[in-house]
Protein 1
Amino acid sequence: MHSPINDNTPDRLFMPALSGFYNGFAQPAGWVLLRLFVGGALVIEGWPKIIAPFAQTGFVESIGFFPGWFWSPLLALINFFGGFALMAGFLTRPVALANAVMLGVTWWFHYTHPYGDALLTQAGIDAVKAGSETLLTPDGARRLADGGAAFLHQVQDKAVFLSAIWAVATLLFAGYGGGPLSVDRHIIKREF
């Protein structure tokens, strides 16, 4: 049975001559690139958690994950080492599923806990307004006329959207595996 993600048989394509290119190069290379980018981003995000594995103990407990001393290092491991495993395509499905759950919780947190005005201090607003001619271009000063609230809203949106994109990408790997150029399929020759 063919997966809909790689069913590039000549009879299904508008340009049948491209089936060899799609199957032999484009899809395997696409899977590798996506794995490298998503896994690499997880490694970069996970590094600060690895060097301070208990730093998020209070945070994870504040969103209902007890005991924090267990969840904080576990999430660091899933994030950091899971990113390397995803990059290699090693144990792709379970690693991707664990990261998808973590990223789903991250998305939920960013969506339900917006930054709000708490990060905008009156001192910061006054400094921007007072130094707008020397610190910023006229366009930059106009964008910060609200004290940075619109910019903070953009930062919030990016946190929500990036968490969603990462969660969906890891769900894709959880469903379809690491692709033909993965340790799972190419070296071990078995997948979950």
Note: Residues 18-188 form one domain.
Protein 2
Amino acid sequence: MKKIFCSLLLALALTAARAATPEENLTSLGLALPAVPAAIANYVPAVRTGNLVFLSGQIARGPDGKFLAGKLGHNVTEAEGAAAARQCTLQLLAALRAEVGTLSRVTRIVRVGGFVNCTDDFTAQSQVVNGASDLLVAAFGERGRHARAAVGVSSLPAGAPVEIELVAEVEMER
């Protein structure tokens, strides 16, 4: 029995040692991080203080580089909104990687803020922002679980359907 237990512990340790990086997890999902989008106003994409990185809100860009636009409950479906939230999150992860060098330095996704441009009667903001949350858990596993707000708003910059912001904890620099 002791030998089986030790073998199981060794197998678990070897599996943990071979755990995929967040970048590898994204690649296995068929996703790639885009170039860090340029700021569209007077702000920077990321600010680091201590071991926290605060990432400015991102609005989704399509494959052509143009901003996505629309309003949930009017001309954007819940699924399209969740896809936009996912794209925003890929852009955030690109900015985070640019700030810290590798996503493997992330020890925890602390908080996600999701803003959904929607009609007054739209109530599925949480499902839309799940596009961001699900991607973070897929990339980081348990380290990707986070506190979150999903808020409906009447408009967003450039008419975007969704804006996502993020706070991450990273390893301290040595």
Note: The helical segments are 2-17, 22-28, 78-100, 125-140.
